[in-house]
Amino acid sequence: MSQRIRFDISGGPDVLQTEHVIPGQPGPGEVLLQHTAIGVNFIDTYHRSGLYPLPLPSGLGSEAAGVVLAVGEGVNHLAAGDRVAYAGGPLGAYSQQRLIPAQHLVRLPDSVSDDTAACLMLQGMTVAYLILHTYRVQPGQTVLWHAAAGGVGQIAVQWLSAMGVTVIGTVGSADKAALARALGCAHVINYREEDVPARVRELTGGAGVPVVYDSVGKDTFEMSLNSLAPRGMFVSFGNASGAVPDFSPLLLAQKGSLFFTRPRLHDYIATRAELEALAGAVFEQVANGTVKVQPSARYALADAAQAHRDLEARHTTGSLILLP
Length: 324
Prior knowledge:
Blueprint: E1 2-7, E2 17-21, E3 30-40, H1 42-49, E4 58-59, E5 63-71, E6 83-87, E7 97-101, E8 106-107, H2 114-118, H3 121-134, E9 142-145, H4 151-162, E10 166-171, H5 174-183, E11 187-190, H6 196-203, E12 209-214, H7 221-227, E13 228-236, H8 249-254, E14 259-261, H9 272-287, E15 297-300, H10 304-312, E16 320-323
Parallel strand pairs: 9-10, 9-12, 10-11, 12-13, 13-14, 15-16
Antiparallel strand pairs: 1-2, 1-4, 3-5, 3-7, 3-16, 5-6, 6-8
Helix pairs in contact: 3-4, 3-9, 6-7
Protein name: Quinone oxidoreductase
Keywords: NADP, Oxidoreductase
InterPro entries: ADH-like_C, ADH-like_N, ER, GroES-like_sf, NAD(P)-bd_dom_sf, QOR-like, Quin_OxRdtase/zeta-crystal_CS
């Protein structure tokens, strides 16, 4: 028997339940996977709460690392015993064992541990598509990154700094400010105490930044718009504080002919080639020492609800994982 987390109704962390199942044998194109570490991400809370509605009942989680136990017919790029990881595909990562389409799995190089992979795949590939594709950041540019001490933010700050990019990071506490600086932020703004757009203008000689990366949402929406240079891009990729408010496209014109985009990882790994390329870019940054990632907290699989409480209360920095 294998444990997994399910929920029958949308709501708070208490709707998460542990159940025992027999995963069965892999069918054509499938793999039976034994999880070794499971990533916990903000999008999981959106699925659980109903912000991103799902057919219920449902499993949860879209990122994990593990070992292949068996492969189904037609699976030629993987074999039993392979170390693999994934971010995407059908929900259900909050489990000890699961069946999953093999197309979502990538082999892990020796340079990436299972714990690192479980908090790197989704967040690392998110950073990769955001800075390499959504807006192609160039050395010498200055960017604003909200939640610089969060899981995605920590990876982004290290990667961008190594590229020769000046990162202005926002945080919500002194401890998080110290962490962001240690990771490579050239400037850190405590958004609870400082006027973010005014400080950004001061740091950029009044120009503003060409791009803002915002995973916070409602609380930082106006800050982001008002920090951009003319023709700058607002990249909204999360809603940690709630969804951004409805706004008229005319507002973008009034603020300087701004661009606004709401990307998602799924559309940047739509093909096997794209998945391999994006994952490979992340693994390269780990192998060369540019990006160093370890989970900041570990929870038992059965304690998934507590992990969600801590994440939503912003009591954590960096990445969280579940141990099955």
